Amino acid sequence: MRVSLIIAVTVSFLIVAPRASAIEPLTAEQLQQACVEFRGQADSPYSALCVYYVKGFLDGAVATDGRVAENVAAEIEEAESFTDRAIRTRVGSRLEEYGPSVYAEFCVGQPDPITEVVMHVVEELERYDDLDGVQAQSVVYASLRRHYPCEVD
After folding, report:
1. CB burial class (10 A; 0-12, 13-18, 19+) of residue 83?
2. At what angle do helices 114-127 and 45-78 cross, to 10 degrees?
3. Shortest CA distance to 121 belongs to which of 41, 69, 51, 30?
4. What would the pLDDT profile of 2-43 be if each residue is shown by its tens digit?
5. Which residues pair with 135 in a beta bridge?
């Protein structure tokens, strides 16, 4: 009985352990490996991984930034003065004009082809002398801010 209990507990820990570990962020070196073929062979499987990472980054930014902006606007509405209302309406108009990523300091529009966006990421990867310790998300974010800045009112 005692041996079966020990085995059951051990098996339970082994089953749960992989789920409990943290998700490791993609490194810039790993992104570079995926994107290395993009210039010459944009339809290769590795190039597709590069494209999907950038698309996922953009989708995540749009989804989370939009929700954050809505939450901020809702908090401001609770007790707003004239100044607060002016700020809120300005926030709303910027959000409508540029989309949710405006608060992340980049504005990628619908007419921008994903191949162009990915090419800028590839160029950004090439700007680094050493990618050791750099996360992929930092490179993509830097590229988007450099090549797709939002217009200042």
Report:
1. exposed
2. 100
3. 51
4. 545 455 445 454 455 555 557 889 999 999 999 988 888 888
5. 27
pTM for this prediction: 0.67
Instruction: Check: CB of residue 141 under 8 Å from CB of residue 104.
Output: yes
Predicted confidence (pLDDT) per residue in 118-146, tens digit: 999 999 999 999 999 999 999 999 999 99
Q: What number of other Cβ atoms are within 10 A of residue 117's Cβ?
A: 20
Q: Which of 50, 66, 69, 59 is nearest to 119 (CA)?
A: 50
> CB–CB of 106/148 below 8 Å?
yes
Count of C-beta atoms within a 10 Å radius of residue 49: 18
Length of the chain: 153
- The answer for residues whose C-beta is within 8 angstroms of residue 53's C-beta and 6 or more apart is 26, 31, 34, 136, 140
